[in-house]
Please model this.
Amino acid sequence: MKIEHIGIATEGIEDALKFWRDALGLEVAAREEVTEQGVRIAMLPIGETRIELLEATNDQSPIAKFVEKRGASIHHIAVRVPDIKAALERLHKRGVRLIDDAPRVGADNCLVAFIHPSAANGVLVELVEHTEGKD
Ligand code: ZN
Model:
């Protein structure tokens, strides 16, 4: 397993880039909008992992609700797993509270599923399985 990325909820990606890109020196490798989740994303590689900047595209977006409640901050940690269905089954068997019982399509056409923060010390954990055999 690897840390696939660290998701950071922002009030606006362009403003967040003033730190992550301009001041710190990371580069934006990809941008994407995931309409179903009401979120816009910028991915900035750092070592073997990536910083995922998240911005809400509407008021109903989970990111909008998170920022309203807790302000801009770390939103989730994504763990890359080789087989997301097997990982979910393992967690389910152990009584771990899941947000997604079945994987769904996330950014970059990966399969993703979220684990409830109450199961992981208050941290929202995202599982990610890369599809299409890419690294
Ligand atoms: Zn993520």
